[in-house]
What does this fold into?
Amino acid sequence: MLTVSSVNVNGIRAAAKKENGLVEWLAATSADVVCLQEVRAEPGQMPAEVREPEGWHVVHAHSDQKGRAGVSILTREQPEAVRIGFGSKEFEHSGRYVEVDLPGLTAASLYLPSGDVGTPRQEEKERFMEAFLPYLVKRKRAAKRQGREVLVCGDWNIAHREIDLKNWKGNQKESGFLPEERAWMDRVFDEAGYVDVFRKVHPEGPGPYSWWSYRGKAFDNDSGWRIDYQIATPGLAERVKEARIERAETYAARWSDHSPVTITYDFP
It folds into this structure.
């Protein structure tokens, strides 16, 4: 069995400092692969417990813009290869994509830009999406030739369907649920041929969600969004055994505004 967890840590230093936070979660998890997003630190700025946690091989890809983005992958097994970025010059050093090769599997950690309608941030998000979709197609084709599967984990910052966020009616003009963003996700699944693994196991909604704003009573009211995904090539998706979102029991027990998405596969 292969268990993979993915979580946006909302700042790895802050998440590591919290009582019963990221450090304790890492020590307790049974995952074989952990993908982190929004790390927001260079390796030299991280405490040793998360920079080089015992029992893990770690790859960090930080952003050249200090305090922004950053993705990491932790694996129990030493990777056969590591690649940072996806061939886009603009986003090569943005800390938004890293992938590793494991036996029979390419696993990636993705932090897609969040966007903000009517601002340069939304334009950045659109440019990223335009560049990233062809890469997904290319990576899937290459993996097929090599007899490999592909798994892209991370914060995609898009809720695909109405069942993926609580207040979908009020967010149709907001970044993360724009019609053009949702149509792009359709292309990831239909055109590029990937599978939303969590929805394969749990096709009904609404929810469960993976992100809740810190503002107001969003968490207590479960007014959340499902924007964290594990998206796989069909061969791997067919091997899914269990999928869950590790939602904290209480607001006070949270160490990020996201919860880990943890999926077990019958692989290899």
Summary: The first strand starts at residue 2 and ends at 8. The longest helix spans residues 120-146.
